[in-house]
Specification:
With 307 residues, this protein is of the alpha/beta class. It has ten helices and eight strands. Strands 3-2-1-4-5-6-7-8 form an eight-stranded mixed sheet, with helices on both faces. The N and C termini lie far apart (58 Å).
């Protein structure tokens, strides 16, 4: 298979100064992309500004013969999101790829989590995704091409202890990507979600001594493919963890139809309601929302005709 390259493409990578984001930026640049390396350079909890991480990645790229510029604007504000995308437009004249990877963590049990800490995490992960997408999406649609990769987490899919804010933000990102996939379809814009896991500073405080190899290099090729023009999917969720690459889906049971329900009926039918031996999956694109409604309506109509 010929090497998949990004010559002529411009990529924006938020959180690109360290960990997974750094790996993404270096990989795309090594394949010909011009890269905006965005990183506030702050602490894991957020706050502070340090240009060194983004600048260092830019130096690595340029030393290898690539093209890159640094950005230390914060994704947490609308103004920051605009400045990040403007950096790409001002320096390279276009935006083809947006990878939102910026993140922070503030751990606390749900019963103790402060509103300040909750908002600080949601601001970066979820609102940050919107701030970047909101600016890049129209540019991509007008150009007739775009690749968006937003970062969720197994915490967003399944939850985890002590990170309610993180779980909420990472779940919300999935909805944002789905809408971008639906609305971008006719314009050649594809949007997908990556659920990565790697031992980076985000794993600080977690005992990883028994983990298998989990470096960013096991995730970056998946994000690279999602960013490439040959990417054949949109509105999907891809998982990359310890060398395993998979897709995650939202599935439903076929369910049970009744013309009317009581509380007791729900309880008595719960086994059948929860029977997942024949799961249903409604792909986001082209119209998972409508397919879901049509399925339910058809069941009601079919049962009514049998009455």
């Amino acid at each position: 298979m010929d090497e998949l390259r990004f010559d002529g493409r411009v990529a924006v990578v938020t959180g690109g100064g360290r960990g997974l984001g750094r790996s993404y930026a270096l990989l795309l640049a090594s394949r010909g992309a011009k890269v905006v390396v965005n990183d506030l350079g702050g602490s894991l909890a957020g706050g502070d500004v340090d240009a060194a991480p983004a600048d260092e990645v830019v130096r690595e790229i340029t030393a290898a013969g690539g093209q890159a510029v640094a950005s230390t604007d914060s994704v947490a504000t609308p103004e920051g999101g605009k400045a990040i995308i403007d950096t790409a437009l001002d320096n390279f004249g276009r935006v083809d790829i947006l990878i939102h990877n910026a993140g922070n963590v503030r751990r606390a049990p749900l019963r103790e989590m402060s509103y300040e800490d909750f908002e600080a995490v949601v601001d970066v992960h979820l609102r940050g995704a919107f701030h970047a997408v909101r600016q890049a999406f129209p540019v991509m649609c007008d150009a007739g091409y775009g690749r968006i990769v937003l970062t969720s987490s197994i915490g967003g899919l399944y939850g985890n202890h002590g990170v309610a804010s993180y779980a909420v933000a990472k779940a919300g990102v999935i909805g944002l990507s789905n809408v971008a996939a639906m609305e971008g379809l006719e314009f050649g814009v594809r949007s997908n979600v990556i659920v990565p896991a790697a031992v980076t500073r985000m794993a600080e405080g977690i005992d990883t001594s028994a983990y298998p190899p989990m470096g960013p290099e096991l995730v970056a090729p998946v994000v690279g493919w999602l960013s490439h023009e040959t990417c054949s999917i949109t509105g999907e969720i891809m998982v990359a963890l310890a060398g395993r690459v998979a897709t995650a889906v939202v599935a439903e049971t076929p369910g049970v139809y009744r013309p009317s329900w009581s509380i007791e009926d729900v309880g008595e039918n719960m086994t059948a309601i929860r029977d997942d031996t024949q799961p249903l999956v409604f792909p986001v694109v082209p119209d998972g929302h409508g397919d879901h409604i049509r399925y339910s309506f058809a069941m009601a109509k079919q049962e009514a005709n049998h009455a």
